[in-house]
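Handout for the seminar on molecular recognition.
Each group receives one record of this type.
Step one: identify the two inputs.
Step two: read the structure output and locate the region that could contact adenosine-5'-triphosphate.
Step three: write two sentences on what you found, then compare them with the reference statements printed after the record.
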Amino acid sequence: MIEFAGVSKKYKNGTQALKNISFKVEKGEFVFVVGASGAGKSTIIKTILREEIPTSGLVVVNGYNLSRMKRRHIPKYRRSLGIVFQDFRLIPNMTVYDNVAFSLRVTNVVSKEIRSRVPYCLKLLGLAHKAKCYPEQLSGGEQQRVALARALVNNPSIIIADEPTGNIDPELSFEIVDLLSEINIQCGTTIVMVTHEHELVSYFNKRVITIDDGVLLADTRSGTADYLFTGADLMDGYSKTLSSREKAIDFSDKALPGPSDPCATACGAEFPVGRRPDRDKQRDCAPAGRKA
Ligand SMILES: Nc1ncnc2c1ncn2[C@@H]1O[C@H](COP(=O)(O)OP(=O)(O)OP(=O)(O)O)[C@@H](O)[C@H]1O
Ligand SMILES: [Mg+2]
């Protein structure tokens, strides 16, 4: 599904960002990519998105050799991926609904389908009551859930997330990764997520690829890369906090879509991603049109 074979990347200014990186991500895997600032994590993500081309080596995604991909095919390729960034990248003068619908409109999905898929994805992420809000009316966590809804609405086979929790508080970070994890488990969507947050990596116990100064330092299947952490005491503290903490999102079947939900069919499984009723009762927004 994603293969890096001997990939090196030297930027024009001479910075060697990646040095002979090789790894494979199979369909349905969830992989964290970790490493210090400047290690080369975003360069890996940009290479997968075909924003950067390796100086040498091979990157193959969904069977496409990205170095050979024709420029005119790049937008279509990118639309086949779900992409989530640290800074959300929502369109400020569009409502939540339109932000999510936008990625369907640009691919000429028929209106009837847009009218069923967008509300479905908003409901899934606990955002139905925010459909008419503008991004500035939302909290950071809500904005990131809109970005996640937008990434999901095309039913991508891969979601690429570069520090999706970087701009939100720790409690909401768990919520976002919980959602990604459920999407991965229930829909078989492959997830590649860059993060700095060691407690998330430890808690979710997924595969971890560690990059250090452009080199692949470790690739652990079990999730916990012990050397990432500064001490056992610190980890002990995290474990206690986490085990006493309730999951941020209610994944119970209260919020499950009905069997006729269009996205349920589209991804071959029902999304069991729920919402937290106590929080979702909170503030609704003014009707759309404010910024018409
Ligand atoms: N467009 C560019 N031109 C030149 N050098 C770049 C460019 N983009 C990144 N770099 C350099 O490449 C190296 C890897 O950068 P990258 O953004 O991949 O790191 P990162 O691991 O994502 O860091 P962070 O955790 O701070 O986001 C760094 O030394 C960075 O300064
Ligand atoms: Mg980065």
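Reference statements: Residues 129 and 282 are 9 Å apart (CA to CA). The first helix runs from residue 41 to 48.
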